[in-house]
Design brief:
Length: about 325
C-alpha cells in the first residue's frame, strides 16, 4: 500500500519497525476509563492486531500489529471508546483527528487517595476538552499533591494540587501532631508558639499533611481549590530538564487560560524547520526569551489575589 505516514501519525497510528504494520494509540485522559470499554480494545487486538495491549507511560493504550489496510475498521471500532471518553472529534468513525498533544496524565487523585487535594481525573478531562485536538507537541500532567506521584515536573505543564489550610483554634488540643508531621513529611512550615501551631504562609506548600495529622479537625482543607503550576520539564536527548515552579496558589480557570495562551505563543514562534512540525516549548522560550513567553502566557489571565508568580523565571538543564 502507498501510505501517507504523516496522515497516519496524525490519526494516532504509529509507524512501527515491522513493514506493513502499524499500532493504534488510544487516548485515555487522566488515565481513567470504565471497564466496559476494555472488550472493544480486546476485540481490536485479537482481530486486527497481534493479540496484545501495551499500557503506555502516558496512561493510554497501544495496540500493535495492525495491517495498514485495517486502519479504517479499527477507527470504526474505536468510535464507542472516543464517544464514551467524550474526546473531541472532527469526523465520526474516523478515529482521532490529531496526535501532537499527548495523552494527558493524572495520578488517581482524591477519588481514592487521602493525600490528594483535588479530583485529578476531572481536571485532566476538562483540560482534554479545552486543548484537543491539536498537532502541537504539548505534554500536560496532573498530580493531587506535592508527593508528585505522576512526575509532573517532567512535563511542559505540571499541575500540583494544593489546599490553603484552615485553622480553628477552638478545636486545637495543642498536641503538636500537625507540627511533627509538617516537620517530618513536608517543609516545616508549622511551629509551636505558646502551645499553638503557627503557619509560615510563605513557606507552606499547601500539601494538607496538617489536615490529615490533626486528631480533632482543627485543621481543614480550604473549600477553594488551588494549584502549583510548573513549567517546561522534559526528557529527551538534547537538553533534559526538570520543570520549574511558575505559579503558587493558582486557580483552575487561570491554568487553562495559560495553557491555551501558550498554544498561541507556540503557533507564533515555532521553528519552520521543526522536525515533524513539533518543537519542545522550552526550546522556543530559550529562543524568544522569558519576557516574551510571559507576555503571551499571562495575557488576560486573572489570578487569585493569593497567587504568587515566580520572578525571575529561569530554568536550566544539561546542555550539549
Amino acid at each position: 500500500m502507498d501510505i501517507n505516514t504523516a496522515k497516519l501519525k496524525k490519526n494516532a497510528f504509529r509507524v512501527t519497525k515491522v513493514r506493513g504494520k502499524t499500532a493504534s494509540r488510544i487516548r485515555v485522559p487522566g488515565g481513567h476509563l470504565e471497564a466496559r470499554f476494555l472488550p472493544v480494545l480486546q476485540e481490536i487486538s485479537e482481530k486486527y492486531g497481534d493479540g496484545t495491549l501495551h499500557i503506555t507511560n502516558r496512561q493510554g493504550f497501544e495496540i500493535p500489529g495492525i495491517d495498514f489496510a485495517d486502519m479504517p475498521r479499527v477507527n470504526e471500532l474505536l468510535q464507542s471508546v472516543i464517544e464514551g471518553l467524550e474526546i473531541n472529534q472532527e469526523e465520526e468513525g474516523a478515529g482521532y483527528p490529531a496526535a501532537g498533544t499527548r495523552n494527558i496524565n493524572a495520578c488517581v487523585g482524591n477519588r481514592v487517595c487521602p493525600y490528594a487535594c483535588y479530583d485529578t481525573t476531572a481536571f485532566a478531562q476538562r483540560m482534554e476538552k479545552a486543548v484537543f485536538p491539536n498537532d502541537l507537541h504539548f505534554k500536560i500532567a496532573f498530580t493531587g499533591c506535592h508527593n508528585d506521584c505522576c512526575k509532573v515536573r517532567m512535563h511542559d505543564f505540571g499541575i500540583i494540587g494544593m489546599t490553603m489550610p484552615q485553622y480553628e483554634a477552638s478545636r486545637c488540643v495543642s498536641c503538636g501532631a500537625c507540627v511533627k508531621k509538617c516537620q517530618t513529611k513536608s517543609v516545616g512550615a508549622l511551629t509551636m508558639v505558646n502551645l499553638r501551631p503557627q503557619r509560615d504562609a510563605k513557606k507552606c506548600i499547601g500539601c494538607g499533611e496538617c489536615v490529615l495529622a490533626c486528631p480533632d479537625a482543627a485543621w481543614t482543607r480550604s473549600p477553594e481549590k488551588y494549584y502549583r503550576l510548573t513549567l517546561l520539564g522534559r526528557s529527551g536527548k538534547k537538553n533534559p530538564r526538570m520543570g520549574e515552579n511558575f505559579i503558587k496558589w493558582a486557580d483552575e480557570e487561570s491554568i487553562i487560560k495559560i495553557v491555551l495562551n501558550t498554544y498561541e505563543y507556540v503557533k507564533e514562534y515555532i521553528s519552520p524547520d521543526a522536525p515533524g512540525g513539533k518543537e519542545h516549548i522550552g526550546y522556543i522560550v530559550d529562543r524568544t526569551g522569558v519576557p516574551e513567553f510571559l507576555k503571551w502566557a499571562l495575557r488576560d489571565v486573572r489570578l487569585p489575589e493569593c497567587a504568587e508568580v515566580t520572578s525571575p523565571l529561569y530554568w536550566k538543564g544539561i546542555v550539549y
